[in-house]
Amino acid sequence: DAEITQSPRHKITETGRQVTLACHQTWNHNNMFWYRQDLGHGLRLIHYSYGVQDTNKGEVSDGYSVSRSNTEDLPLTLESAASSQTSVYFCASSGQNSYNEQFFGPGTRLTVL
Amino acid sequence: LAKTTQPISMDSYEGQEVNITCSHNNIATNDYITWYQQFPSQGPRFIIQGYKTKVTNEVASLFIPADRKSSTLSLPRVSLSDTAVYYCLVGTQGGKLIFGQGTELSVKP
């Protein structure tokens, strides 16, 4: 069955380190998204991609970057981790003709000390 | 992007019908209304989407009045497993989805 996976599921890192969170989907979806979820804020969009080589900034993109070299993967990089980036991160994907029906991964809980 | 307003929390009992209303006064002509469900420690899950009138699937119904300034998610005969946070989103196909704080539904025995 097609799925979307994230790794690692839990990560503890130190301030200033570079961290990369992986997202892999086997739906063959063009659209992929990264969100973060914090108490009191719901989910906030970090970056998104509508296809290979396409990336766009969301509402909270500062300090994060993504690259899309193939259809299946959209890794999220924290260039220099900060304590304010402690959060739960969700990756999602959607098909060409069903943008609003996004399939979410299980999430990565990141703690920056 | 249209802003949505929905109750922060709701309580219900098993077997009851639950209606969660969302206001989106500034909805644009091309906007769709989408609802998601999220359980603790899981990613959100798509429930239903509509543009106007009524949409029904195996888990819920979505009622949208003619002016489209609000919508109501209806969950028939809820069970304890329906305890979750429900998000109402408004956006165009191909546009970005903006998640608000959602409605925390608590179903009691």
Question: Overview of this structure, please?
Answer:
The complex is a heterodimer of chains A (113) and B (109). By secondary structure, chain A is mostly beta strands. Chain A is 0% helix and 51% strand. Chain B is mainly beta. Helix content of chain B is 0%, strand content 50%. Chain B has a five-stranded mixed beta sheet, with no helix packed on it. In chain B, strands 2-7-6-5 form a four-stranded antiparallel beta sheet, with no helix packed on it. In chain B, a hairpin with a 5-residue loop joins strand 6 (61-64) and strand 7. The N and C termini of chain B lie far apart (38 Å). Chains A and B meet through strand 5 and strand 10 of A and strand 4 and strand 8 of B.
Question: What's this model, at a glance?
Answer:
With 113 residues, chain A is an all-beta fold. Chain A contains no helices and eleven strands.
* Biggest sheet character of chain A: 7 strands, mixed
| Overall helicity of chain B | under 10%
Greatest contact between two chains:
A-B, 23 and 22 residues
- The helix-strand sequence of chain B is EEEEEEEEE
Structural class of chain B: mainly beta
Average residue pLDDT of chain B:
91
Structural class of chain A: mainly beta
Described by its quaternary structure, the protein is heterodimer
The residue ranges of chain B in which pLDDT falls below 50 over 5 or more consecutive positions are none
Q: Write down the Rg of chain A.
A: 13 Å
Helices and strands in order, then pairings?
The complex is a heterodimer of chains A (113) and B (109).
Chain A: E1 4-7, E2 10-13, E3 19-25, E4 31-38, E5 42-51, E6 54-57, E7 64-66, E8 76-78, E9 87-94, E10 103-104, E11 108-112
Parallel strand pairs in A: 2-11
Antiparallel strand pairs in A: 1-3, 3-8, 4-5, 4-9, 5-6, 7-8, 9-10, 9-11
Chain B: E1 9-13, E2 18-23, E3 31-38, E4 45-50, E5 53-56, E6 61-64, E7 70-75, E8 84-92, E9 103-108
Parallel strand pairs in B: 1-9
Antiparallel strand pairs in B: 2-7, 3-4, 3-8, 5-6, 6-7, 8-9
